[in-house]
Amino acid sequence: MEEFDPKITIKKKFSITRKVGFNKMAFSLKGIKVPHRKNTAGSEVKRMVIDNTITLPMIMHIGAPAVPVVKAGDHVDVGTLVAKAGDGLSSPIYSGVSGSVVGISDVVISNGRKVPAIKIDSDGEMTVDANIVPPVINDRQSLVGAIKDSGVVGLGGAGFPTYVKFNTDKEIDYLIVNCAECEPYITSDTYTMLERADEIAYAIDILLKHVNIKNVIIGIEKNKGKAIDKMKEIASKNSKISVKVLPSVYPTGGEKVLVYRTTGRVIKEGKLPADVGCIVCNCTTLATLGKYFKTGMPLVEKCVTVDGSAIENPQNVIVPIGIAIKDVFEFTGGFKSEPAKVLYGGPMMGISVPSLDEPVLKQTNALLAFNEKDAKQGEETACIQCGTCIKNCPFGINVTEIARAVSKGEYDRLEKLGVGICMECGCCAYNCPANRPLVQMHKLAKISLREWKEKEAKA
Predict the structure, then answer these.
(1) Where in 123-240 does DSSP place strands (E)?
(2) Main-chain phi, psi angles of 242, to 5 degrees
(3) 264 CB burial (10 A radius; 0-12, 13-18, 19+)
(4) Over pLDDT 70: what percentage of the chain?
(5) Which H helix or E strand runs over 438?
(6) Beta-carbon neighbour count of residue 53 at 10 Å?
(7) Does residue 126 contact residue 77 with C-beta atoms inside 8 Å?
(8) For a surface tag, which of 51, 111, 398, 413 has the fewest beta carbons within 10 Å of its beta carbon?
(9) Nearest to 407 by CA among 436, 365, 375, 374
(10) CA angle 78, 319, 332 (to 5 degrees)
């Protein structure tokens, strides 16, 4: 496998400068070149048939936990509702196997939070729930209800409940289909575009029929030739749909970046795509909705990319949501060397997995395992004020000043510096010669700012 090269080239020709938000922060849209490592792009996709136990945490989305509707001893099938959406922003959860509910107990998820989880022993039969039928959709309200009932959340990694995006009274000029897949290694969305284009097209047709969307733009990086052809086939059948071929520059798939590069519109700090007349959906999210609209089968499985320098056989695998990571690795042939780090997602924005017992979640699009050499990070040294972090930030955030404001407890200044617009893409840390944990610093800065605001509001 090609060795990891920390050198990158700045793609300056796509830079712009705009004023964003009340704080007049410079919005400097740039991108960096990262090694693609798309080792699994042309590999055969395998489906994992299991008789293992799955674990379904009640939080696999942004918002309130789902509420269990089953108990120990209950029989479930593939597609059986096991947890209804909680109050407010939430999403239901369905079983991806047939078998028996073992019980409900607390588990610690990757962010350290303890949440209830339903454990189900698979019987290996993968029997489909007899009650699965396509939803009845005849207007916008029933469409939003169907999307909520599907259990679909942002499958590109964000986990935001998809129904909320379409439950808006704002005028929508563009539905933007995110086909960028700009992170190294990950090719699960590419599989979707190549093999599930009909489901993407069907979802778009239903959305255009019941939501007042004027145009659809499919945004895809130029390094995906076959997938581009597939998406152009979709566009050729509907005059409202167009394909925008984008530069192969990270982080093109970031929501704010994608909206700008496809429409020229800028999402200000604290605002959503709908505030500028856009809705952004990942292509796998749409394919899953298309399948649900056609068949009634909710979100129960994911295609995940299994790759990294510690992996014996890199490949894409279709797995039931809730299956343990260790079982997926075993199915693909295990490790060729002891993994020193395992990630949910890509190497730029992925989350380190504390245990191989952790389950595949709704928003899991990749499982990457790296050997000690590739997982090793350089020793952190003092900041030399070189400005590399600022130059490489897609939004031109003053990273060094944010760090200084946090250290001094200057929370009002943190807000003016625009830490809230940081999407934690990792461009700053990737290029930092001092190996400083800049993304983690920004996460802590956001938490500190939020806590300060809450304290000020109570004062």
Answers:
(1) 172-178, 213-221
(2) -135, 160
(3) exposed
(4) 93
(5) helix 438-458
(6) 17
(7) no
(8) 111
(9) 436
(10) 145
Residue 258 has pLDDT above 60, yes or no: yes
Looking at residue 419, its amino acid is V
Compute the Cα dihedral for 256, 257, 258, 260 and give only its sign: positive
Q: What does the alpha-carbon distance between residue 165 and residue 158 come to, in Å, rounded to a whole number?
A: 13
Q: How far apart are CA 287 and CA 289, in angstroms?
A: 5
Q: Which amino acid is at 191?
A: Y
Three-state DSSP class for residue 153: strand
Q: Average pLDDT over the chain, rounded to whole?
A: 90
Least confident of 122-136, 258-272, 296-310: 258-272
Question: Distance between CA atoms of 227 and 249, rounded to whole angstroms?
Answer: 17
Cis peptide preceding 251, ω within 30 of 0:
yes
Q: For residues 161 and 60, what is the distance between their CA atoms, to the nearest angstrom?
A: 10
Indicate the range of 7-21, 129-143, 322-336, 360-374 predicted with least confidence. Answer: 7-21
Written as six digits, the tokens of 228 are 């581009």
Which residue in 320, 292, 129 sits closest to 196, CA to CA? 292
* CA 290/CA 310 separation, integer angstroms: 35
- Enclosing H/E stretch for 118: strand 114-122
Whether 354 contacts 50, CB under 8 Å: no
- Side chain identity at residue 1, one-letter code: M
Looking up tokens 């200044």 gives 413
Q: Cβ atoms within 10 A of the Cβ of 130, count?
A: 9
DSSP 353-397: -S-TTPBPPTT--EEEEE-HHHHPPPPP-------HHHHH-TT--
Tell me, yes or no, if the pTM score tops 0.85.
yes
Please check the confidence at residue 14 and state whether its pLDDT lies above 90. no
